[in-house]
Amino acid sequence: MRILKSRAVRAVTAALAVGMIATGCASERGKDGDKGGDKDTFVFAGAGDPGSLDPALASDGETFRVTRQAFEALLEHESGGSKLVGGLAETWSSNPAGTVWTFNLRKGVKFHDGEAFNAAAVCANYDHWFNWTGTYQSSAVSYYWQSIMGGFKKNEDKEAPKPNYKSCTAKDENTAVIEVHEPSANLPGGFSLQALAIHSPKAVKEYEKQAASGKGDAITYPKYSQEAGTVAGTGPYKIVKWNKGNKEVSLERFDDYWGDKAKVKNLVFRTIATEEGRRQALQAGDIDGYDLVSPADVKTLEKEGFQVPTRDVFNIFYVGMTQEKNPALKKPQVRQAIAHAIDRENIVKTQLPEGGKAATQFMPDTVAGWSDKVPTYPFDTNKAKQLLAAAGESKLKIEFCYPTEVTRPYMPAPQDIFELMKSDLEKAGITVTPKPMKWAPDYLDATEAGACALHMLGWTGDFNDGYNFIGTWFAEYDKQWGFKDPAVFSAVTAASKETDPAKRVEAYKAANEKIMAYLPGLPISSSPPAIAFGKNVNPPKVSPLTQENFAEVSFK
Amino acid sequence: MLRLVVRRLLQLIPTLLGLSVLLFLWLNRLPGGPASAILGERATPTEVARINRALGLDQPVWVQYGRFLKRIFQLDLGTSTKTGQPVWDEFALRFPATVELSIAAMLIAVVVGVPLGYLAAKRRGGWLDVASVSGSLLGICVPVFFLALILKGIFAVELGIFPSYGRLSTGIDATEVTGFAILDGVLTGELDAAWDAIVHLVLPAVTLSSIPLAVIVRMTRASVLEVLGEDYVRTAESKGLEKSVVRVRHVLRNALLPVVTAVGLLTGSLLSGAVLTESVFAFGGIGSFIKDAIDARDYPVLVGFIMFIAMVYVVINLLVDLAYSLIDPRVRVN
């Protein structure tokens, strides 16, 4: 017994000793935060890992958040707003037909690898994208190029879109001219996208040596896009390390930056997938800020002294009505009844963070083309009942799909919102069959395939053009909505083809009015997404497009 | 002994083949696919069809299976549809974290669990016994996820004693040699990095150890109680052998046999517990990666992972049998 006792005692003592040392050491860490009190490093947490260090290969916000600090596009949005301003191009113009775009480039700009920025560099990038072959032509890789510029020099897939990009010419050192075949509603907004940010021509040459490979059954992203080293942009930060194991991308201030230098030397993006985890990491002092704040946490964080600015609204949340799934939805009165039955103000009041707005059309009021003359459908249960009776659908039964385990910037608590809508619809005499589904891929697949009579979804804009919202859904037949109405489709398409900006805005207004008269679904709300920062941080201007510039961040 | 090892390893082949067929059929029946996970809200039927074609998912399941088998024979697990990187590379990057976490959790469970179970049995009915039995019941009942949140809430958020997430602090520039953060720190002489890794490991390891700890305490206790009543223990005691010799050589050695088996099986199951623990602590191991893979219908990763786990189980079982024969010569197969 003596031996065992002494062994046991030794083991316990050793464990305690380790524990105490750990505690002591960690307490020291806790006092200063993870960064050891240094004000040289700003740590920001997102919800997902970036997919690639080359934004041209990406289509997700988490990737763009990181790359946006290192790569700049020809145009950008004003800090904290949605107005298009010069980026790497100081000024820009197009011919009246909207097919020739001339960019007067900023002088004295250097890439992170020492190369000079000029018109040839711009063309090297655009030609590089246009000449993509093989796996790069998959929309899983080049989604944004294809949605803005169409297909490639040589389309290898017959389903690939028709190329709209024609050429890029370096007229002189500081003038680049990009030509397209047809005017597009995606221009000039598309020139501001991270996916079309300009990389150093030397880096582009390296990129070209490393084709994305596909063995027929998979897409392998090229090596350069997975580790810092080759990629080089012109932004205020350069990417120095991507530690995938520790879920962390490290950036360092670029001292030769042409504009205002970044205030904090090191910028680190870390991935913490859960909302709860990000909040706790901020409260524990382990990070200096995070995105995708749950609306339920905003008040708690503010009370604790954290800064939780909300962005201007630039998203739309809607209920889709799939006419082909439930024939009753083909009757306009039924769609109108559903619209009257749902109390949107109540959803905004109880479910959205402060600053949320009930929607009257399929775009937020911050987008040019929003109309104040659209037909509206105010909350009125009795009217809903009357409309249903008039349509002969007093005993309407309808399936309503909603996603679980997800929050989106436009839809903070899907299940709670669904419950409110269900109860509203039932008050109007509609029997709702709930169909909860896992967000990805089940729910997204089901809604996209038109498998849900009613469903809820939304959209955050990429740039300030009406087509980026209504064009996404109503330019042509889409299974999600399951209807064919030439008047709606042609109104949206015509607006996108209008090259005069003022006339285009008017055309979008008219299209919105047509859409809301037809009522293919019900726009519910626009919600201001919140972002959180530590107490000792001077945050950047928050952007409605979630395009924060972290070079503006400093410590108090 | 060698024959046993070889035979057991050969048994892996039909096991893995059978498993791969079941997996393929199961994945094929799951709703959805990777395309809409890649495209999110932007998915349109045309885009989804194009991606499915690019990934070969539009082909019959037997064609996909044939392609998979062909790859496997070339020791290639394919490419993750989510990250676009070879599955082996992704595993190599993340396994060290999970292995480190599992070893730490198992160490806590064994080092604390065996003595506690032994003492509880020796002092049956005493306060220590009551406390460890009820404590272990709690350990089994409380979900790992919940425990993780509580521990994090208290020790990371409220008290600030331990970090709330990750494997290493920001700013710790550790050189990677093996991928095992603690070992690398020691090997390269970067002791601050090794220490930082240990500090980051404490809360997740304690969380993950809760179930094995509880099981080991209860099994050791029950097993020691059983052995204490055996004739040979009484005989040894009556022969006048020193008490410590009886306790270690007769009681503990025999009582540990079922515990060793349990440790083996628990080690395998730790990997599934790691999925939740790693998610809560954003630990960057294979657990959280698998969770993401399920959400993204990342078939190559899922198939590769499950096959790998099956392999780990077989190997652990083999090790358990070998350990068994070391502890108790009677069960030596040869």
From TrEMBL, chain A:
Keywords noted in UniProt: Signal, Transport
Highest rank taxon of the organism: Bacteria
Keyword Ribonucleoprotein attributed: no
Annotated ranges, domain Solute-binding protein family: 83-479
Segments crossing the lipid bilayer: none
InterPro entries: Peptide/Ni-bd, SBP_5, SBP_5_dom
Gene3D superfamilies: Dipeptide-binding Protein, Domain 1, Dipeptide-binding Protein, Domain 3, Periplasmic binding protein-like II
One Pfam assignment: SBP_bac_5
PROSITE patterns, per database record: PROKAR_LIPOPROTEIN (PS51257)
Family as reported in the entry's similarity comment: Belongs to the bacterial solute-binding protein 5 family.
Identification of the protein by name: ABC transporter substrate-binding protein
Species: Streptomyces coeruleoprunus
From TrEMBL, chain B:
Domain named ABC transmembrane type-1: residues: 95-324
Main localization category: membrane
Segments traversing the membrane: 9-27, 101-121, 133-155, 197-217, 255-281, 301-324
UniProt xrefs under Pfam families: BPD_transp_1, BPD_transp_1_N
Domain of life the protein comes from: Bacteria
Protein name as it appears in the record: ABC transporter permease
Keywords: Cell membrane, Membrane, Transmembrane, Transmembrane helix, Transport
PANTHER family linked to this entry: DIPEPTIDE TRANSPORT SYSTEM PERMEASE PROTEIN DPPB-RELATED (PTHR43163)
Family: Belongs to the binding-protein-dependent transport system permease family.
Database matches in SUPFAM superfamilies: MetI-like
